[in-house]
Design brief:
Fe2OG dioxygenase domain-containing protein, dioxygenase, oxidoreductase, 346 residues, 9 helices
Length: 346
């Protein structure tokens, strides 16, 4: 797939600056047949995490029921009341924009090879016949700290490292609250999912730049897929992320104080299929560029995960087997444009 490798060695941002049209390896959308629902009409559930620690039992229980319903039907929700000030979220959005607006030579200090994962560039070369994403990204291992590779952490903008360090710590707190809430919503012991993720659970951050495109009807910023994580937390600045539900693409509305919590395949496995890992994608715009910050939360390396015993009974038989390092299997299938969840079926 030498042709794709040539394009992957270039940046989409460079193509835009040079006035280039999308080359053939990026063209993937010619005549989508699935209906799209725009953001104002999109009923992606909103969950107030602050109510989950409410002293009012009714409010707490009602929000837990909403959480279970959201994750059983949508596989995602917009989280508010998570404890991160909107002003700080705006700082993260701004420093991400500032990073990508730097001269190309500055960003190339974090450049990755075509087949490498961490660093600045594009995802590794997909298998032959798979199209390329109309986007650039910076990918960093964040936790455990000993897995970080300092050469990929930008020194400019000067505030980048400090802000991302602080944001990552705050997101860790959000995942602890969310994991406990998900367990309670299923009437399980509150630490059961945290125990499955392990003490050395992994956090990886992905900073995305989605360029505007003259022909948004032909390209995608990110191809349709489900995540191989436990779950994923998305901070977006503009609309463009879409979730597939009931044979329709629903655009996730922009809510400045919210982060989107999106289930990955490993949470579908741990909940024995109760929570869904939704297929999602990113569309492009003819006028606007878009930035997002995504944190992937996954079990520690070599940690076996599987359905919680409390969710298995005669009426609900075990659907999945125990798995180790599912994310690696998921990636193999992702590169083929396929889902991997069937490999975990018991």
């Amino acid at each position: 797939m030498a042709g794709a490798e040539v394009f992957l060695s270039k940046r989409v941002q460079e193509m835009i600056l040079n006035g280039e049209k999308p080359p053939a390896p990026y063209i993937c959308r010619d005549g989508d047949s699935i209906q799209e629902v725009s953001a104002p009409l999109s009923p992606v559930p909103i969950i107030d995490l602050s109510l989950l620690s409410s002293s009012t039992p009714y409010a707490k229980q009602e929000e837990l029921q909403k959480l279970r319903s959201a994750l059983s039907s949508w596989g995602c929700f917009q989280a508010i009341g998570h404890g991160i000030p909107t002003t700080f979220l705006d700082k993260i959005r701004q420093v991400t924009r500032e990073y990508f607006e730097q001269p190309m030579d500055e960003k190339k200090k974090q450049a990755k090879g075509v087949e490498e994962f961490e660093g600045y560039g594009a995802d590794p070369t997909p298998e032959e016949g798979q199209f390329l994403d109309w986007s650039d990204r910076l990918f960093l291992d964040v936790y455990p700290k000993d897995q970080r590779k300092p050469q990929f952490w930008p020194e400019r903008p000067e505030s980048f490292r400090g802000l991302i360090e602080e944001y990552s710590f705050k997101i860790k707190t959000v995942t602890e609250i969310t994991s406990k809430a998900m367990a309670k919503s299923l009437k399980l012991e509150e630490n059961c999912f945290l125990n499955q993720f392990g003490n050395q659970s992994q956090y990886q951050a992905r900073f995305n730049y989605y360029a505007h495109c003259q022909r948004p009807d032909l390209v995608l910023g990110l191809k349709p897929h489900s995540d191989g994580t436990g779950y994923t937390i998305v901070l977006q600045d503009e609309e463009g992320l879409q979730v597939l539900k009931d044979e329709q693409w629903f655009t996730v509305p922009k809510i400045s104080e919210a982060v989107l919590v999106l289930m990955g395949d490993q949470m579908e496995i741990m909940t024995n299929g109760i929570f869904k890992s939704p297929v999602h994608r990113v569309v492009t715009s003819a006028e606007k560029e878009r930035f997002s910050v995504v944190v992937f939360y996954a079990p520690e390396l070599n940690k076996e995960i599987g359905p919680e015993n409390g969710l298995i009974n005669e009426e609900c038989p075990r659907l999945f087997k125990n798995m180790k390092d599912y994310a690696n299997i998921h990636w193999e299938y992702y590169q083929k444009g396929q889902r991997a969840l069937h490999t975990a079926k018991g």
